[in-house]
Amino acid sequence: MSTTIISLLLILATTVITTTATTVSSDITALKSLKSSINPTTILSYTCLHSWDFTTSDPCSPPHTTHFLCGLTCSANRVTQLTLDPAGYSGTIPSLISQLTQLITINLSNNKFHGPIPTSLFFLPNLQTLILTSNSFSGTIPPTISLLKNLQTLDISYNSLSGSIPNSFTSLTHLTLLDLSFNKLTGPIPNLPKNLIQLSLKHNSISGYLQKRVFTESTQLEVIELSQNSLTGTIPSWFFLIPSLQQINLSNNTFTNLQVLKPSQLSFTSNLIAVNLGFNKLSGELPVNFPAYPMLASLTMSNNKLRGRIPWEYSRISRLFLDGNLLIGLPPKVFFYRKTLISGSLGDNCLKICPKWSELCVKLQKPFSICQKAYRGKW
Ligand SMILES: *[C@@H]1O[C@H](CO)[C@@H](O)[C@H](O)[C@H]1NC(C)=O
Ligand SMILES: *[C@@H]1O[C@H](CO)[C@@H](O)[C@H](O)[C@H]1NC(C)=O
Ligand SMILES: *[C@@H]1O[C@H](CO)[C@@H](O)[C@H](O)[C@H]1NC(C)=O
Question: Bridge-partner residues for 139, per DSSP?
Fold first, then answer.
């Protein structure tokens, strides 16, 4: 054999090696396992997964056969991101996923993955973002989720998870966003990790009281969305004093009381912007000190059992929904000054005068008989 032919063969051999063996084999095995755990009839010709052809190309090898790389990002020879297209893939997450140990991001949103959330997912030490929203996952949230020490974002909303939420989230000290809304979760609000910024448990069957020990560590919380659950009891005054709080939504629960803040408790450094306590069973009078929050721009207390007069201080709040209560008397005149720009509703109450030309009064007041009954004639 001539030396030219030998050197040609050598060049060929090295080329074959570098182009076929780039991705580490354990990652390839894991990806193959993922593809084969998906019902093939849901892998349509235009989808990412359809383009994953392990016989002709290597997931991480340059030059990129771009079609294969759809759904994946690599760093050197390891897969770092798995972000599937929302193509309606139906399947389960295979346990071999735990071999993708360099994964930083998983996003499988808007598909039809089902079965329990596999605990093998929790053996991915570098995972920072786990998004499984809008799938059909069921079963409980395993407490071993706390093994994901680097997790920053967890979104498992719009699935069919049940059972109570484990308290082990407290050890996820990097977690800033926790979204478990629109599931079938029960039990109390779990203890929260200390760096959480956004909490959403909307539309579940979470029950019990708002307990101080749950929130004490969470000094960074800006958004608390707990609407459409079965929470009950008093909304305690400390709740509004969580230091970073901006938005609170407790609507559609069964809270019965609102603990009024003492003037000495009022925090004028508060960042509170929007509070929604609508569709509860709150009784008593409107607390005068909500308007004292310097940033408060939106307050909803619709559809409760609130009584008494509307304090004039409420004219400081630019979006005000107080409809569907038993409020009486004359609403403060400043509400109707031309320069006061308040939107919202005061309808469906027992107010004496509510000028129909005002947007606030489009919805009519309650019939006289209902108001008379509620106040036993004394109003
Ligand atoms: C997750 O993927 C969906 C597409 O299915 C995309 O719309 C969404 O923005 C992604 N989320 C993040 C945080 O990257
Ligand atoms: C609060 O929750 C209710 C009911 O789920 C929803 O209609 C409303 O848009 C939410 N947000 C705010 C800011 O009120
Ligand atoms: C809140 O509850 C009321 C009464 O139970 C219901 O009519 C309304 O649709 C609920 N709103 C949401 C957003 O679930």
Answer: 161
